[in-house]
Amino acid sequence: MAYDNDNIFAKILRGEIPCDKVFEDEHALAFRDINPQAPLHVLVIPKGAYVNMDDFSAQGSDAEIAGFIRAVGQVARELGIVDAGFRTLANNGPDAHQEVPHLHVHIFAGRDLGRMIKNFKD
Ligand code: 5GP
After folding, report:
1. Which helix (H) or strand (E) holds 72?
2. 20 to 30 A from 112, CA-CA: which of 36, 49, 66, 82?
3. CATH topology (fold) of 8-109
C-alpha cells in the first residue's frame, strides 16, 4: 500500500493541524488521541512516512526502528504509567480496522484494561 501524504497524521507531523503533544524527538511524536478509549490514551507515531508495522519493519532504518521503540518506552515512563501497567496496540490493515494509514502505536492506561482482545470463539 502506497503512503498517502494527506493522511491526518502526516498533516499533524507537518504542523498543518494541531495535536495535544506529550513527547517529541528525532524519530517520534506522541500526542493524545482525539477520542480516548481509556483515561489515558496516547498515540505514538514515527516521523517517517510508513503506512503500518509491515511497511516500517521492512523499510525503516535500524535507527528509525530503535528510535521509535525507545520513544514508546520513554513516553510510558514520562507519563508515569509503568508501575500500574499499560497496553500498547497497533492496528494494521482491514481486519484490524486501521483507520489512519500512518503507523501508530496506541498506549492505553489509567484503569484495569481487561484481558487482551475479545476471544474469537465468543
Ligand atoms: P486506528 O483505528 O487507525 O488504530 O486508530 C486511529 C486513532 O486515531 C483513533 O483512535 C482516532 O480517535 C485517532 N484520531 C483520528 N483522527 C485524529 C486526529 O485528528 N487527532 C488525534 N489526536 N487523534 C485522531
Report:
1. helix 62-79
2. 66
3. HIT family, subunit A (3.30.428)
